[in-house]
Amino acid sequence: MDIDLKKENCSVNINLFRWLFFMVISISFINSSLAQGDLVIFPKRIVFDGKKKVEQLNLANIGKDSAVYNVSFIEYRMNELGEFEVITEPDPGQHFATPNLRIYPRQVTLAPNESQTIKIQVTNTNNLEDGEYRSHLYFRAIKNNTPLGQENKTIDSLAISIKLKVVYGISIATIINKGISNTVTSISGLAYEKDINSRSFLNFEINRKGNMSVYGDITINYISKENILYEVGKVRGLAVYAPGTIRKIKMPLQNPVGVNFSDGKYVVIYTLNKTEKVIAEAELEI
To answer: Hey, what domains does the chain have and what are their CATH numbers?
Structure first.
């Protein structure tokens, strides 16, 4: 009796641990992960800077169906609007990371509410020239199985049934940085705009010059003539990928109650992601 009880308690503890682990991971995904469809990925980018040779990604299926994903690499360029374009050859000044990366496993099967870890390893970097090497880890859904536990249903031969299954992909930047960054970042071209629906926007440009990309958070503050500061805009995880030198931004502004954007100034601050180190700042007087 005692042995059976211990086994039962052990099973309950294991199941409880798995559930708690999945919930903790799911909550952490809210602010620091990518999600599309039922696949959630954490973290949302990988950077090898010489300190580590292996990084891990946590994948979670938050849907009701089991799913299979192929894992590979894809190459992108980023245009001035932040849109990605698939390429096969690097642009001048661009270097792909794919030849120096390994993935394990290359295919992942996830049941509903199941999570799994994959590993990305960097190899053969000793002979690389200083600079940035970037590719994007690409997860492609290839199968959407019948939900686990679903019973077969009788088919009405007189009825026509169509079931559409969306097949999608999601990618995250995977970067190898070799050497010291000499990148310089600035903000220019600030312009306030109000549309026909009285919504407020701030237009500006992030300028990048140097051997590596920049990635960080944008904060827009409005400072009134009474010197009261209001945070009116926030975007996390905004990048300007090398070799691109400019990214054009149009950010909607929150309008605090009772505040009139007519006499004061906007301050745009670009900070390194997670460190909050300011790498660029600009002001616009109204």
So the answer is: 35-178 (2.60.40.10), 184-285 (2.60.40.10)
